[in-house]
Design brief:
It is a single chain. By secondary structure, the protein is α+β, with helices and mostly antiparallel strands. It has a single domain (3-219), classed as Nuclear Transport Factor 2, Chain: A (Roll), CATH 3.10.450. The protein is built from 4 helices and 6 strands; from the N terminus they run H-E-E-H-H-H-E-E-E-E. It has helices spanning 3-22, 53-65, 71-91, 103-116, and strands at residues 27-30, 49-51, 126-139, 142-153, 156-169, 213-219. The protein has a 4-stranded antiparallel beta sheet with strand order 3-4-5-6. Strands 1-2 form a two-stranded antiparallel ribbon. A hairpin with a 2-residue loop joins strand 3 (126-139) and strand 4 (142-153). The radius of gyration is 17 Å and the shape is globular.
Length: 220
């Protein structure tokens, strides 16, 4: 990720975590676990997150089943996907996003992108303003988190707004430090020639039984 984009992403995550930590009512006790971003996000402190019951009670259920689940690190991870997705849009080739996008979603996104001719200048021109979960569930065999993201683009007054729906199989555990550039099974680097399967262990990369996968990306 571009340094400027990453700085804006971390600031947006910090803002959200600060908001829920400062809330006076809701579900408490959802602690931030060990995170690959712990040093960078150290300014967030060690406060428990206080989450609004109607909006985020699923987060607590996910964390109870997966104690290593870190909401701040998860949001940074979604931001990483967001950056890669818009970089791919800028190049006019969505193939690289198959590492983390569900096959059904990819089949819908790719032709729609080609038909629309929609192009962005890439992640270097984007700054995240808001990133926050709006729905979370731990049921029906799946963990599901729906995230709302807003970003501004240099030289463009229009705010980019998207909903990202992330899913994984219920019972899947967080692997701290994992990112979209590595296989969720063996940790090997993703081969740019085939972003669908690991070149080392042959695992299908966008597998919700192993890791979070983007099931829907919806512009507002």
């Amino acid at each position: 990720m571009d340094a400027e984009f990453l700085e804006s992403l971390l600031a947006a995550v910090a803002d959200f975590i600060g908001e829920v930590a400062a809330a006076s009512s809701g579900i408490s006790g959802v602690q931030r676990g060990p995170s690959p971003w712990a040093e960078t996000l150290g300014r967030l402190g060690d406060k428990p997150l206080t989450l609004q019951p109607d909006e985020h009670q699923g987060i607590q259920a996910i964390r109870e089943a997966d104690p290593a689940f870190d909401l701040a690190a998860f949001l940074v991870r979604v931001g990483e996907m967001f950056s890669a997705y818009h970089a791919a849009l800028d190049r006019g080739d969505l193939t690289p996003v198959r590492r983390f996008v569900d096959e059904t979603a990819y089949a819908q996104l790719a032709p729609a992108t080609e038909k629309s001719g929609r192009r962005f200048e890439g992640p270097r021109s984007l700054k995240v303003r808001t990133i926050k979960p709006i729905t979370a569930r731990h049921d029906d065999g799946l963990d599901l988190v729906r995230v709302f993201i807003t970003a501004e683009q240099a030289g463009n007054d229009d705010l980019l707004c998207e909903y990202w729906e992330l899913v994984r199989k219920r019972g899947t555990l967080t692997k701290p430090g994992l990112d979209i550039a590595h296989c969720p099974n063996c940790g090997g680097p993703v081969d740019g020639l085939d972003p669908t399967r690991c070149a080392y262990c042959g695992t299908r990369l966008a597998d919700p039984a192993l890791d979070w996968v983007a099931r829907k990306i919806t512009p507002q």
